[in-house]
Amino acid sequence: MDDPPRRAALDALAAVRERDAYANLVLPSMLRQRGIHGRDAALATELCYGTCRARGLLDAVLQSCTDRPLSEVDGELLDALRLGSYQLLRTRVPPHAAVGTTVDLVRAGRGSAAAGFVNAVLRRVGVRDRDSWVRTVAPAADEDPVGHLALAHSHPRWIAQSFADALGGDLDELARALATDDARPLVHLAARPGRISAAELAGLTGGRVARYSPYGVHLADGGDPGELVPVRDQLAQVQDEGSQLVTLALAGVPLKGADARWLDLCAGPGGKAALLGALGAIRGATLEAVEKAEHRARLVDQACAGLPVTVHVVDGRVSGLPERAYDRVLVDAPCTGLGALRRRPEARWRRRPEDLPGLLRLQRELLVAALRLARPGGVVAYVTCSPHWDETVGVVADVIRRTGAEQLDARLRFPDMPALGEGPHVQLWPHRHGTDAMFCALLRR
Ligand SMILES: C[S@@+](CC[C@H](N)C(=O)[O-])C[C@H]1O[C@@H](n2cnc3c(N)ncnc32)[C@H](O)[C@@H]1O
């Protein structure tokens, strides 16, 4: 049976498993190459991304429906089992179609014996619905509430625990946070300041003006934003509203004295640098953008074409740039990315807690370097796309202890936004604000 959307979803899952591909890069190009558009493309995307996100729950269910350990199941068949069980447990695809279409794909690629195995396992999966499976395979809610919610919303436990810690242990809110993180997010655009307004951009793209960022537009579901004319013409860029807000927070801090030299110490691929560069062009400031990785520095160059931005390919910790020179400095530090998991379908299963110590060291060193580069009275924004306590509040507290920098109340720079917490930092959340879970602390040298 010819089933291009499911075939594409299955092939993209294989690429993610075999060569560590990113689903949100590999699938769109596969769809373009194969001429899959419209509803078929939307179906392939929903099945591929949804299966990637839900892997933890799906594997727990599949393990209880097979005799052998999943690690011994052939990779392609495991992809098919995950794709089939995702449709059974998390979509409105009728069960007979979820099983039948998956078995057909396996038969066409791998023959009857493999198809028989997949058919038998999926029939066992289909015996219960999602909630019933969660009750069966998840840790008991009264004994291990975080573990229960983690499995129910398909997050690794350590990530769910880090969200719980950042939310002060409120389990109802944790459930909302994990559920929102598990849903498909809208694409956000940022209108380029000085070139086009958010209202004009919304009119051109069929999107709607964002709630909090004056430059933000939320696109309606579906479609490839890279194809939009305003994006191709650099009147707008794809950028989460939270990323816009933390950039605007830095730009909005009142300063005494000079305000003409701005610095972005971790600039690649250039989303925040482009927004800062466009604001700088209006306000008579220039931006220097530092990026260690050469290929990412090239992306910064492209993103900032036509703006008063100079790119330096150098390590931000030892940049050789002048100390005590910059009025505003952004440190958008390399981090675990736990705040943007909804946009990177497989990322939650790739990240490891062991990644943290190296990142924490790098984050501290970059923030200390930024404070050295800022002029006395200048402001530094420390930003992560993660709510993990260690790489947010922990890093900031540690650097303040070492440097004596003054922490400003960042909440003042997020006007009219609810639920910003007790400060002085700001932690945004998908379930509270509809943004990625961006963290922002503002420090004055
Ligand atoms: C979170 S990303 C920045 C995203 C970017 N600000 C944007 O909005 O598009 C962090 C960046 O820091 C870069 N990076 C990592 N270590 C660095 C270092 N020591 N110095 C400068 N850049 C570094 C990474 O290559 C990555 O591009």
What do these coordinates show?
This protein is an alpha/beta fold and 445 residues long. Helix content is 50%, strand content 13%. It has 20 helices and twelve strands. The strands form two sheets. Strands 5, 6, 7, 8, 9, 10, 11 and 12 form an eight-stranded mixed beta sheet that branches. A four-stranded antiparallel beta sheet has the order 2-3-1-4. α1 packs parallel to α3 (38-53), α4 (55-63) packs across α5 and α5 runs antiparallel to α6 (95-110). The protein is globular and about 75 Å long. The mean pLDDT is 97. The protein binds S-adenosylmethionine. Residues 243, 266-272, 290-293, 296, 315-317, 332, 334 line the site of S-adenosylmethionine.
Features:
445 residues; alpha/beta; 12 strands; eight-stranded mixed sheet; binds S-adenosylmethionine; globular; 4 domains; N-utilizing Substance Protein B Homolog, Chain A; 20 helices
